[in-house]
Design a protein that fits this description.
By secondary structure, the chain is an all-beta fold. 0% of the residues lie in helices and 50% in strands. The chain starts with a strand and ends with a strand.
Amino acid sequence: QVRLVESGGGLVQAGDSLRLSCLVSGPPASSYAMGWFRQAPGKQREFAAAITRSGGSTSYVDSVKGRFTISRDNAKNTVYLQMNSLKPEDTAVYYCAAKAYAPRYNTIDLVHEYDYWGQGTQVTVSS
């Protein structure tokens, strides 16, 4: 059974940075394509960033391109989301997700494609 645990959220000011971590326990993290999603109050969960099983390719929603970076350290079974130049509109609960049996070179950006989810970590950006 896969378990995902996010950490690193918090309250910051606009322009600040945060790094979220997602620890994958169970089968090796390299078995999964990974993604970060976010959900603001009253809104649907939306895609933020994704990374292939090996970490060789990444994808981002347009609103975070150039500011967020997803990465992974399979030796530590951990996926990261470095968030720079944060804006108030980035305020949301951020969720880590894992997809089993993903093609090696594909990133996955659809909520329903993922098999496992973490409990989420709150990110609040004040103006």
